[in-house]
Amino acid sequence: MTPHGEETRESGGTGSAEGRLGGKVAFVTGAAGGLGRSHVRRLAEEGADLVIVDICRSVDTVPYAQSTPEDLVEAVGEVEELGRRVVARQADVRDRDALQEAYDAGLDAFGEIDVVVANAGIAPLLVEDRVQAWYDAIEVNLTGAFHTVEVALPSMIEAERGGSIVIVSSTAGLVGIGGASNGGLGYAASKHGLVGLMRTYANNLAPHSIRVNSVHPTGVATRMVADPAMVEFVAQDPVLSAGGANALPVEMIEPVDVSNAVLWLASDEARYVTGVTLPVDAGYINRR
Ligand SMILES: NC(=O)c1ccc[n+]([C@@H]2O[C@H](COP(=O)([O-])OP(=O)(O)OC[C@H]3O[C@@H](n4cnc5c(N)ncnc54)[C@H](O)[C@@H]3O)[C@@H](O)[C@H]2O)c1
What we know:
The chain is α/β, with parallel strands linked by helices. It has a single domain, classed as Rossmann fold. The chain is built from ten helices and eight strands. The protein has helices spanning 34-45, 69-81, 96-110, 132-159, 182-205, 223-226, 228-236, 238-241, 255-266, 284-287, and strands at residues 7-11, 25-29, 49-54, 86-90, 115-118, 163-168, 210-217, 277-280. The protein has an eight-stranded mixed beta sheet with strand order 1-4-3-2-5-6-7-8, with helices on both faces. Strand 3, helix 2 and strand 4 (86-90) form a beta-alpha-beta unit. The longest helix is centred in the middle third of the chain and has 28 residues, at 132-159. The radius of gyration is 18 Å and the shape is globular. The protein starts with 6 loop residues before the first strand and ends with a helix. Bound molecules: nicotinamide-adenine-dinucleotide (NAD). The site of nicotinamide-adenine-dinucleotide has 30 residues, from helix 1, strand 3, helix 4 and helix 6.
């Protein structure tokens, strides 16, 4: 992997650290767009300072665009407008060294990191199927989340302040709905793999009072599902297009619905919640 570790921005806000995450610092991947941007906004609204990372360039096997460096700068601006501090880096979660550099820059700036949100993910679902799509799904969605947690653990354990790690999986991490393509199988396998990772970390880290949970959203209105290339892909895949609807009368949920679950798991309100797979799915899984 090529490192994409160039500095984007560091800044100091002036707002007070009140709110459900007042005084805490959160590390969020895939932060420039979609759900990640929403998590960043919601955590900052509740008083967190942020260390944010995004690849900011497209991935060959993914038919919709990833975020841009401009999107990352916009995310920085949103945090600043909320009066919180932010360190931002362009980095690929597959590149552990670049991710470590980003994390360490946040640690230098803030002295501690309490919350980790492993959110970056791709759905490499090309109409002209390619085996590489399997590898990309596994490397970004599963290995990337592993890297995200691993770069954070030494300082979190050493700080002895406890903490919360939230891994963004999917309904495709709990039921077999990836479809028949290489990328779809990789997506479902990676999202299921995150559950094993989460459960094992939850056991390993409980003695340090570090909680680890996963969230499992149904379809959310982001580029990952709304982009025309993805709509076309789903329509031509008989397994995916027969996927069924949510139980609650809503076609797609909003990013903030997932961010509110992330916020709760990150906060002390969930202080004895660990090892949990939390669906944010409008009843999708229960209905199957
Ligand atoms: N949108 C949905 O319907 C849905 C449903 C269930 C789960 N999810 C999961 O939610 C997470 C966010 O998805 P989204 O809908 O916001 O997608 P998105 O494509 O809108 O945003 C993903 C973000 O991650 C970044 N990113 C992609 N690859 C990266 C990498 N290798 N390193 C760092 N950053 C990278 C992108 O630039 C982008 O900013 C993913 O893990 C996804 O699998 C999404």
